[in-house]
Specification:
The complex is a heterodimer of chains A (457) and B (344). With 457 residues, chain A is α+β, with helices and mostly antiparallel strands. Chain A contains nine helices and twelve strands. The two termini of chain A are 52 Å apart. Chain B has two domains: 184 residues, D-Maltodextrin-Binding Protein, domain 2 (3-Layer(aba) Sandwich), CATH 3.40.190.10; 145 residues, Periplasmic binding protein-like II (D-Maltodextrin-Binding Protein, domain 2, 3-Layer(aba) Sandwich), CATH 3.40.190. Chain B starts with a helix and ends with a helix. Classes of the chains: A alpha+beta (457), B alpha/beta (344).
């Protein structure tokens, strides 16, 4: 099973969040490092200054090294934070005063500039600044080493605060970036969504090419889509042309066969031959009708995707069809009546399809009507236009209309009557394609009544 | 009954404690109920001063016995620093020695709501906590100063001494900094505050001053008429003893008046440090502050008293206090002091 690929939005958001997280973490460590270095530099500066102040207060002389610890040098060490302070002053290798266990600097190169080092001392760890000086004691130069040490609790407290702030900054910038990435994903994907929406909103017959402005990245897709639409349009056109051609090519030879058969019937003397020819004529007639219905159905299917949109006068159409079927009806001793056709009833739609539907309804009515009855066409208007075709045939014998309008399904009581089962299907499809509907009911006093409803223009 | 029990527990006199540690007084306050725990307190403050607080603490905690040991500030320092004796709380007025104990790692960190509520200047890290602020004052005999008026600044004092050498000769008292830790602390802090200290020392030196090792002795001598002036006396002792005495005056000099912080710390050697901390919390709490002021005569930590007295200079609890403890620095200071005092 293939997993559905991640949505573009999710992919974009995840990637942006990943970048934001990396940047936030980098920010956190940068802020921390810089702040800790700054704090250490500051504390070292103060510690170094205190050490220098003590070193400068040392005095040489005949009686030995004079030490006058400056009060402020110590006091100032406690000004940044309350840290513990230790000191040691060595002259010529011997401790003069202070904490004689305070660790000495490792390298010998201690100079007038303080050197800093961190060492464990007693129960804690201290940062030590050491300054070396030469003093003249009894006219001999004596090296003096001054060390001042300080615990770094204050700096650790600062570092902790800075770490918290840095974490807050990192989280804050991550949250901001997350919000922005959601916005960004939305704005980047908006043209795609708009395009999908525009294409999706189109009706089934809308085969215009897409011409809304799109970003450069989407242009290949739109171009491909437009090419696809053009090919579809071409295919539909070809189908329609093919149907028209096929109708022509099948009906014309059948008409020729029928004409020839009728001539042969008239000329034939043999009763046996005449019976055969009548059967041929009847078969050709049914074939012609079936072919017509098949082509009607194909036309309906092809055209419902691209309905012609024109004003159609149902009154004229009903009257014309009644006239067209009259000879056929008379052959079977039937009469055709039409009513409600004295004033125009206009609907919006595809004339060819409505005509095909009407033709199939009348054809059905004639087919199932016993001789000496009439087929009644009635055109009325209410909320919709209604064409009613009523006969005195064998009715529906209780079968569901929905079944009868399925393709290639014929009524169980169709019996000896030839048919393809397509007629009512065509009518129902035409009704739906025009936004109307179709029903078929038992007629009072026997027979069936078909009603085709079409919305008025 | 209670007093009788106490009397049994009190050992008065100089007792040798363990190895070489000299105790002035050791008092056992037995628990009211069954003794569950005991607090060992080492202090420079007299038992009588803190007794009301200890009893109030025990009435709240009837199962706790209190062992209260009094020693001089040097002995207190040595008991913790070199002898590592087990006490749960160390109380001392010697800020410099307390600071050195805390700085050198002999104080355990302690943190509670009461210690957090202390102003920044009244604590150092979470190791050293002040519970009383005591001004260092000048006391004077009104009779002895008759016709001169009370000096309000050191400049006034210097001029007065200079102008009336006969009246003051042999009748001025102050601490001997070479013998008294408190006297040394006051003198060094005075010297830090202004140069007038040295001029004062010189003027006093010319008047054959009497040197003391305790405030109480100076107050006694002033009351007896031996002294006309005593310089650098602890106001917390002078105030109660001279209250209502119309013959004496207590002066907070306006150029600067030092404020000593009486501090407590929980040593790392404590066997029950949580009890030491609890007693410290009691000292810093509302009841402890009230009893300190009303019963012990020690002013509790009060920021408003400082802000309303701009002449007050609380000694800073910071490593600067270590400077004058340096042996070389101490020798140099005392040399200079002696030179100033013995100019003639």
């Amino acid at each position: 099973m293939r997993r559905a690929p991640l949505s573009l939005r999710l992919r974009l958001v995840l990637q942006l969040l990943g970048i934001a997280a990396v940047l936030a973490i980098m920010l956190y460590f940068t802020v921390r490092t810089v702040a800790e270095q700054a704090a250490e530099a500051t504390q070292d500066g103060v510690l170094g200054a205190a050490t220098l102040a003590i070193a400068e207060s040392l005095q040489g002389g005949d009686s030995g090294v004079g030490v006058d610890l400056p009060y402020e040098a110590f006091s100032i060490l406690g000004s940044i934070s309350a840290d513990r302070v230790f000191y040691r002053i060595d002259a010529d290798g011997a401790t003069l005063t202070g904490y004689d266990d305070l660790p000495l600097p490792e390298e010998a190169g201690v100079a007038v500039v303080p050197v800093f080092y961190t060492r464990p001392f007693r129960d804690t760890e201290v940062r030590i600044a050491a300054v070396a000086r030469m003093l003249l004691v009894a006219r001999e130069p004596v090296p003096v080493l001054v060390m001042v040490a300080q615990t770094r609790q204050g700096q650790e407290a600062i570092a902790q605060r800075v770490a918290q702030r840095a974490a807050a900054i990192g989280l804050g910038s991550f949250a901001l970036a997350a919000a922005l990435s959601l916005l960004t994903a939305g704005s980047v994907l908006r043209p795609i969504n708009r395009l999908a929406d525009a294409v999706g909103r189109r009706g089934p017959q809308d085969l215009r090419s897409v011409d809304r402005p799109t970003p450069a990245e989407l242009r290949p897709l739109v171009t491909a889509l437009n090419g696809f639409i053009a090919r579809l349009r071409g295919a539909l056109n070809r189908t329609e042309t093919f149907i028209a051609e096929a109708a022509h090519h099948i009906r014309t030879p059948l008409a020729t066969v029928r004409a020839r058969a009728e001539i042969a019937l008239r000329q034939s003397k043999s009763e046996e031959m005449r019976a055969t020819l009548r059967a041929v004529i009847r078969a050709v007639e049914e074939s012609s009708r079936s072919a017509g219905q098949l082509l009607d159905h194909a036309t309906v299917v092809a055209r419902t995707d691209r309905l012609a949109d024109e004003k159609v006068d149902l009154a004229k159409l009903v009257a014309a069809q009644a006239d067209a079927f009259r000879p056929t009806a008379e052959l079977r001793d039937l009469t055709i009546h039409h009513s409600g056709t004295d004033r125009p009833v206009i609907v919006q739609g595809d004339r060819a399809l409505i005509e095909a539907a009407l033709r199939n309804l009348i054809d059905n009515a004639i087919k199932y009507s016993p001789p000496e009855t009439s087929v009644d066409l009635d055109l009325t208007t209410g909320a919709e236009a209604l064409i009613e075709v009523a006969d005195r045939g064998r009715g529906l014998s209780g079968q569901a209309q929905s079944k009868l309008t399925q393709r290639f399904i014929r009524g169980e009581n169709a019996g000896d009557i030839i048919g393809s089962g397509l007629g009512l299907t065509i009518v129902a499809e035409v009704a739906v394609a025009h936004g109307g509907h179709f029903d078929l009911t038992e007629r009072e006093g026997g027979g069936a009544c078909a009603r085709l409803y079409l919305p008025l223009a | 009954m209670r007093t009788a029990l106490l009397a049994i527990g009190v050992i008065i006199g100089l007792t040798r404690f363990a190895a070489g540690f000299t105790v002035e007084e050791e008092t056992v306050f037995p628990s009211a109920g069954v003794e569950q725990q005991r607090i060992a307190i080492l202090s420079t403050t007299d038992t009588a001063v803190l007794k009301p607080l200890i009893e109030a603490y025990q009435s709240r905690n009837p199962d706790i016995a209190v062992h209260y040991t009094v020693a001089s500030s040097q002995e207190v320092f040595a008991a913790i620093q070199s002898e590592r004796l087990a006490f749960d709380l160390v109380i001392s007025s010697a800020m410099d020695l307390q600071m050195k104990l805390a700085n050198d790692g002999f104080a355990a960190p302690y943190r509670s709501a009461a210690t957090e509520a202390l102003p920044r200047w009244a604590r150092w890290q979470d190791r050293l906590f002040a519970f009383a602020q005591e001004n260092v004052v000048l006391i004077a005999s009104n009779e002895g100063l008759e016709g001169l008026g009370l000096p309000q600044t050191r400049r006034d004092l210097i001029e007065m001494l200079r102008d009336n050498p006969n009246r003051f000769r042999g009748r001025i008292g102050t601490y001997d900094p070479s013998l008294s830790g408190a006297g040394y602390l006051f003198a060094t802090q005075d010297a830090r505050q202004s140069d007038s200290f040295w001029r004062l020392a010189e003027v006093m030196g010319s008047l054959a001053p009497r040197l003391y090792i305790s405030s109480n002795d100076m107050i006694t001598d002033l009351k007896q008429g031996t002294l006309v002036l005593a310089y650098n006396v602890l106001g917390s002792y002078a105030g109660p003893r001279l209250a209502g005495d119309g013959d004496t005056s207590v002066v907070e000099l306006e150029d600067h008046t030092l404020t000593l912080l009486r501090t407590g710390l929980v040593p790392t050697t404590a066997e029950t440090p949580e009890l030491g901390g609890a007693f410290l919390d009691f000292l810093l709490g509302a009841e402890g502050r009230r009893l300190l002021r009303d019963a012990a005569g020690l002013p509790p930590i009060d920021e408003t008293a400082l802000s309303s007295g701009p002449h007050l200079r609380p000694m800073r609890l910071d490593p600067g206090l270590l400077v004058f403890l340096d042996a070389i620095k101490r020798r140099a200071f005392l040399d200079e002091w002696s030179a100033a005092l013995q100019q003639n």
